[in-house]
Design brief:
Chain B: Pfam families: MNHE. The complex is a heterodimer. By secondary structure, chain A is mostly helical. In chain A, 67% of the residues lie in helices and 0% in strands. The termini of chain A are far apart. In chain B, strands 1-3-2 form a three-stranded antiparallel sheet. In chain B, strand 2 and strand 3 (130-135) form a beta hairpin. In chain B, helix 4 (103-115) runs antiparallel to helix 5. Chain B is globular. At the A-B interface, helix 1, helix 3 and helix 4 of A face helix 1, helix 3, strand 1, helix 4 and strand 2 of B.
Chain lengths: 126, 161
């Protein structure tokens, strides 16, 4: 009997649900990154993977290995902690670089007003 | 004591982190302690604003609110991404004036907004205190104005200021 077969159904079902949830959200995020048209929109897609995408898989992993080992296994949460703390740094750097580029090229996303269109696309002909 | 351990909470967290990633033994404890003290010294060279947490009991409420918000916006963004091109979604830039000034509170707000899908922190002007946010779904701009101004800012203020 493998360790996996020893897991009672009551644990296996939530673990399966969380793994499927986490990986599905990550996949949707990745698809979004590929399909979205503008840079600013693309910033949003991977946040699905860094929030519940990672979260679901981490919780599932902690739950399953805590059961197999018979002791609380929590070091997965360190991964989650580090992802949550480091994502803003990259995101802000990319976002500000994009803003800087847009301004340098004379298409300030703010010119349409305080909450105007933010496509970040060059207008036709420019 | 303060000179040796400038950031006791940071050093303690690093020791706990180290022990979580290895196994508990005296050797690892000593090694982890030494590393965390060095890290604390290195960190103080950056002269960060020392966080002063005034009310710890607000923190669980903040975490709970954030948990639900992340769940809610995960579903919303996943749905928008799956129907992309058919739902007429537009993104928008929102300029939100913030009243919090504390560096650590702002850092925490940046983490909160980044962890919540649908909002991307683009820019914060220190002089005016205006935050530029990129909002994935333009119809949610008012919602985020509300959430930041009425939910997160008061909580962060209670914690830090």
């Amino acid at each position: 009997m493998t360790p996996l077969q020893a897991i009672p159904l009551a644990v296996a079902i939530p673990v399966a649900i969380l793994v499927v949830l986490g990986s599905t959200l990550t996949l949707i995020g990745a698809l979004g990154l590929a399909r979205l048209a503008t840079f600013y929109d693309r910033l949003h897609a991977p946040t699905l993977a860094t929030s519940w995408g990672t979260g679901g898989i981490i919780i599932a992993s902690a739950l399953m290995f805590s059961f197999i080992d018979g002791r609380p296994v929590v070091h997965e949460f360190v991964i989650g902690f580090c992802i949550v703390l480091t994502t803003p740094v990259t995101l802000m750097m990319l976002g500000r670089a994009a803003l800087q580029r847009d301004r340098a090229e004379g298409r300030d996303p703010f010119r349409d007003g305080p909450s105007g269109d933010a496509d970040g696309n060059p207008s036709a002909g420019s | 004591m303060t000179r040796l351990v400038p950031y006791p909470f940071l050093s303690l967290s690093l020791i706990v982190l180290w022990l979580m990633l290895t196994r508990f033994s005296l050797g690892y404890l000593l090694l982890g302690t030494a590393l965390s003290l060095v890290a604390g010294q290195a960190y103080s060279a950056l002269h960060p604003a020392k966080p002063r947490v005034r009310r710890w009991r607000v923190l669980p409420r903040l975490v709970a609110t954030l948990f639900w918000d992340i769940m809610r916006s995960n579903i919303a963004i996943a749905r928008l991404l799956l129907t992309e091109g058919r739902n007429g979604r537009r993104s928008a830039l929102a300029r939100i004036p913030l009243s919090i000034r504390d560096e650590n509170a702002l850092a925490l707000l940046a983490i909160i907004l980044t962890a919540t899908p649908g909002t991307a922190w683009l820019e914060y002007e220190t002089a005016t205190g205006v935050l530029t946010l990129h909002v994935f779904d333009a119809s949610e701009v008012d919602h985020y104005h509300d959430v930041i101004g009425k939910t997160y800012e008061p909580m962060l203020m209670e914690i830090f200021e």
